[in-house]
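Archive entry. Fields below.
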Amino acid sequence: MATADHIDTDEVLGVRGLTVTYGAVTALRDLSIEVRRGEVVALLGANGAGKSTMLRTISGVVRPRAGEVRLEGDRIDGLRPSQIVARGVAHSPEGRRLFGSLTVAENLRLGAAQRRDRENVEADRERLYDLFPILRERSQQQSGTLSGGEQQMVALSRALMARPRLLLLDEPSLGIAPLIVQQIFASLAELKETGVTMLLVEQNINVALGLADRAYVLRTGEISLEGPAADLKRNYEEVAAAYLGVRR
Amino acid sequence: MNMGLYIVQQGINAVSLGSLYALVAIGLSMVFGILRMTNFAHGDMMMVGAFGTLLINAAGAPFWLAALCGVAVGAAAGVIVERLAYRPVRGAPDVTLLLTSLAVTYILENLGILIFSSSPRNFPIPDIMNSAIQLAGGQITFTAINVVTIALTVAALALLGWFVTRTDVGLGMRAAAEDLGAAQMVGLDVDRLIVVAFAIASAFAGLAGVLWAAQSGIVEPDMGFTPLLKAFVAAIVGGFGSISGALVGGYVLGALEILIVAFLPSSVSPYRDAIVFGLLIVFLLFKPNGLMNRPQEVKL
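PREDICTED_STRUCTURE:
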């Protein structure tokens, strides 16, 4: 259902006035962000700032108390997670959350669970194996036996198997060796070139701002700073201050 | 009597008994694997399956067809219970789910008493099922129902094995059992997977109920209670939540019970159940993840 009040064909994700509470705790307060087609937007902030809650609300795992989430103009808040995936939002969750006893290939197959175009699934898998060749080698191995970096590649690939219009990435650098982080972010840059729209949650400000076009800095459930990634990168102190809430 | 033949004889008894425990334990473990909930009403699907068979047979259907329908009725009852009782409280604290399943047990058993009265009824098995099969000049004796029990269990297990390893829905069920939240985020329709799990689990319990009734010759409303407790022990011994664990646990328990009755002094036999439940305590204390499970990861 397209809305008359806000017609913007380039907006992939539109979050407006989002408030999320856990019991008495307010995790997000009247928060609005948008992600435009082909953009990579980073969501920065300290632990507990509400970054993951934001992603979990977009993918329907958490229900918002107020506000709306729109995907290409259509409201998706209130839909079930499986319906939201079917609409084209894939979520690579924090801590990877692989199915460790299943093989790499099985994990990828599950990522395509909501796909209608069965005939293209295999070709997509091959393309991801080209992006991460180590996964082709390990395709029949239990994913739980892989290294952290390899597991992150599986998590990423599993999300991409849904052929998303919007990819939600939660801390892809978490617990991974710096060299592998670089490799993963290089692959993400390649994906960005192909036009994949991403909303990226990261603690690692440097790599996040290196990839992103724009960024929001979150602090205790509210946006404390936003702007083009290049500007924020130049003004590192301001970002750090926004993290911690120090007034300068 | 020849000791070797005696062991073969008791081995057949053990496999037959173990099959029933395995059938019930697998369903219990399957539901626990996905929902982290002990479904105490699971044993009542045995009663539903057996009474379903009895009624459909009485209505004129041949026994085998009635039994097949009875299993289907058991499966349907499990799905209905999930929809009406468990889904509304999903996500509530564990103790709520536990109490809900106990309530369902009481409702189903009392419904059974209301409809069929609490006195046992004869189960209408065909005569051929009771015919004795003798081997080694009569030194090994078992009935056709033992053979049917073992054969149907093996067939059901093979079908289940094929389902969970070779189909997309089966793959989804394994994923959901491992991490329900991640399964949801990947886009699996978790509600549907839970319905499938209850249908399969309850069909297995229904089958166990028909076979149990066929072996004992009677049906009664609380017939599922003791097998449920035994299946619970079997599932814990094998590793709660694991299908292969429940299978192993079922046969270990069957073998143990026959061992106690057949090979220990007859003065020990009355303590069979005490020993079985003692085993449960030992496992809970020293090997809570069971024989087949890896240690649980903490999920946030």
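CURATOR_NOTE: The first strand of chain B starts at residue 121 and ends at 122.
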